[in-house]
UniProtKB/TrEMBL annotation:
Domain Response regulatory residue range list: 3-119
Keyword flag Membrane: no
Designated name of the protein: DNA-binding response OmpR family regulator
Alphabetized GO MF terms: DNA binding; kinase activity
PROSITE patterns for the chain: RESPONSE_REGULATORY
Annotated source species: Cryobacterium roopkundense
Length: 122
């Protein structure tokens, strides 16, 4: 069973994502800000991080960049979820090392398909 870490500062969105991914058969843990999320990635080495962009303490982009700079986390896959949808935002996310980008609002089906897709690239 793949381990997915959800890093999302909106409590309702966090619960929704965790619940849906758990129902889809994933082992899911979560953190509510970028700094705690980065610490959890370093500690647990999840198969995938579902990462919000706009968060306190560290943004999703900063978390992503730090993950990519850490050789021990080289294979970590990242699904960025955000309301930011301008081409420049998408380009910035991919330049930071995001594996896949999902725009908010998204359906729960899109979320699961995105997670499945990223994890299938192993």
């Amino acid at each position: 069973m793949a381990h997915v870490l959800v890093v999302e500062d909106d409590p309702d969105m966090e619960r929704l994502i965790v619940h849906r991914l758990s129902d889809a058969g994933y082992q899911v843990t979560s953190e509510s800000d970028g700094q705690a999320g980065l610490a959890a990635v370093r500690e647990s080495h999840p198969d995938l991080v579902v990462l919000d962009w706009m968060m306190p303490r560290l943004t999703g982009i900063e978390v992503c960049e730090q993950i990519r700079q850490d050789a021990t986390l080289e294979g970590t896959r990242i699904l960025m979820v955000t309301a930011k949808s301008q081409k420049a935002d998408i380009d910035r996310a991919y330049a930071a090392g995001v594996t896949q980008f999902l725009r908010k609002p998204f359906s729960l089906r899109e979320l699961v398909l995105g997670v499945d897709s990223v994890l299938a690239r192993a």
